[in-house]
Write a structure and sequence with these properties.
alpha/beta; 9 strands; about 30% helix; about 20% strand; three-stranded antiparallel β-sheet
Length: about 350
């Protein structure tokens, strides 16, 4: 996508992602400042211009989390780790997205965009400095909180891309208002979100089993945390309410395991099983300890039981993926024709 962008208004800080010797071991809750400048493409003056807080990581139960916050009371408001293992999970999910969309990076019918914003996809605009060391010359990175008031110019972007922000936003209507405000007339928003509730079409998931408990736990965590994990089911209506037109929603299935007879779904299922095996601890550790009050050992035991269930071939489980794209109206109402459609491949 970056190859046809003229500019993206972002800053790209590069920090070491390795945990140096002497940092406390797991089960320790501690802040650590990583000031290693190796690999930085910028000078010292540029690095000093960044907020000091973004280079201070919080280590908790053996995982590293962001410490970026506009105020101390907002530290730790994101539940996913930002360490190298988490970056690997982002890359796996990106690969599954490419398979899902037939090697497309987006579905919106954008044409000749000049400015695009990628929100919350880990290696673009994000809370944490986990971006890659090299990128196209017309792509720059920014450490920011999309839940705060945006500092961009009004009508600035031609395309805003949002992916996997479930459990991350407390006020979704406010978020979509910011998107609307900063998109140029005729510009597009596109959002891709997964449902946290595992599904089965053949009844292999039964009430009370681990898959059923997994979905219910995710929903409860979001409710207690104040940031829903069910945005996939809500985003289309909220985007319409924000004033966007030509709204198109498409639903996909992400199998978990190679149980499908369809070759594409079988391949996706293999990758998604890898995704879950590698990602389960990071998805559960902070939420279940901080929000649900579980101990570290209780989370490890639950994850072990969940992994056994994941390998049980009696289950034909999938996740639902929703993709919604929509356009900001042109200034002239006569140019717009409001359309809202849904599709399932």
């Amino acid at each position: 996508m970056a190859s046809w962008l003229d500019q993206i208004t972002v800053v790209r800080p590069i920090f070491s992602r390795h945990r140096p010797d002497g940092v406390p071991d797991n089960r320790q809750d501690e802040d650590y400042e990583d000031d290693n400048s190796d690999g930085s493409l910028f000078g010292d003056a540029s690095r000093r211009s960044l907020f000091t807080s973004i280079s201070q990581y919080r280590y908790e139960n053996g995982r590293r989390y962001h410490a970026y916050s506009i105020s101390p009371t907002r530290e730790g408001q994101y539940w996913a780790p930002n360490d190298e293992q988490a970056t690997c999970i982002d890359n796996i999910s990106h690969h599954i997205f490419l398979i899902t969309l037939n090697d497309k990076l987006f579905l919106a019918p954008i044409q000749n965009p000049k400015r695009a914003l990628d929100v919350g996809t880990g290696t673009a605009t994000d809370l944490s400095p986990i971006q890659p060391d090299y990128s196209p010359p017309n792509l720059r990175f920014e450490i920011d909180d999309c839940c705060s008031e945006w500092v961009y110019q009004k009508d600035h972007f031609d395309f805003i891309h949002v992916r996997l922000l479930y459990g991350s936003v407390a006020d979704w209507p406010a978020f979509y208002r910011e998107c609307y405000k900063h998109l140029a007339p005729g510009g597009y928003i596109e959002q891709l979100e997964l449902s946290p509730v595992p599904m089965s079409d053949d009844g292999s998931i039964q009430p009370g089993d681990m898959w059923d408990e997994c979905g219910k736990l995710a929903i409860e965590c979001g409710e207690r945390f104040g940031k829903t994990f069910q945005i996939m089911d809500m985003m289309k209506d909220l985007i319409v309410q924000a004033g966007f037109v030509d709204v198109v929603e498409t639903k996909y299935k992400w199998p978990l395991g190679a149980w499908s007879t369809d070759q594409k779904l079988k391949d996706m299922g293999k990758w998604n099983m890898h995704h879950w095996n590698e990602g389960l601890e990071g998805w559960t550790m902070a939420l279940l300890t901080r929000v649900m009050g579980w101990t570290y050992d209780e989370v490890k035991a639950w994850n072990a039981k969940m992994r056994l269930t994941m390998r049980d071939r009696r289950y034909h489980v999938y996740q639902s993926l929703g993709v919604v794209y929509a356009r900001k109206p042109f200034s002239s109402s006569s140019q717009d024709r409001e359309v809202s459609t849904s599709a399932t491949p």
